[in-house]
Amino acid sequence: MKRLEIDLNYDFSNPKLLDTALSHRSVGMNNNERSEFLGDSILGFVIADQLFHKFPQADEGQLSRLRASLVKKETLADIGRQLSIGSYLKLGAGELRSGGHARDSILADAVEAVIAAIYLDSDYQRARQFILELYDSRLQQLTMTKGQKDPKTRLQEWLQSQKMELPVYEVIKSSGPQHKQQFVVSCSIKSMKVSTTGEGESKRKAEQDAAENMLEQYEQT
Fold first, then answer.
1. Is the pTM of this model over 0.90?
2. Residue 70 needs a FRET pair 20 to 30 A away by CA distance; which of 81, 144, 174, 200 works?
3. Structural domain count of the chain
4. Cα-Cα-Cα-Cα dihedral of 58, 64, 65, 71, to 10°?
């Protein structure tokens, strides 16, 4: 934990907060679900505040899409990997066997929970500083082009420009209680035999995530 505190650039007065932030629900009652909820809200506000001042000409839709690109599960999971969060996670036996320490959703939740832990251990300003340190390079490289259109629209327009068929979206899994459902959706381009998946708390968000992953796949190739 001390090593992680060095990587986080933060020393906890109450180490139990960090311990809870790193405890997945599979270990029992003392888990990070509540902390994740709080951290998600703090992160969303800090990023929204930064974008509001960085892009004074952007409208609400553009700001929303820029924020979504920064706080989405994949971005948080990348941050979690940079911090080696997976090495410190406390998981139940089932999650350990299935490789939960490397799963995007678990890493993303843990990062949000760590943000909440720092907030609870100190104050909003320190949590804000921590978030801005995590996102420094991403915020510097961010441009308005990422906020122009949502991933599904961009993917559709790109395929049309290539005279290719439109993608097919299909729900392949849904889980969780009614008030906190999680969807997994596939995005397929059948003629090319290419498929990606996305996750989200609604079908629409899962479709956007899958489309974003498809775009990223094509950008890399």
1. no
2. 174
3. 2
4. 130
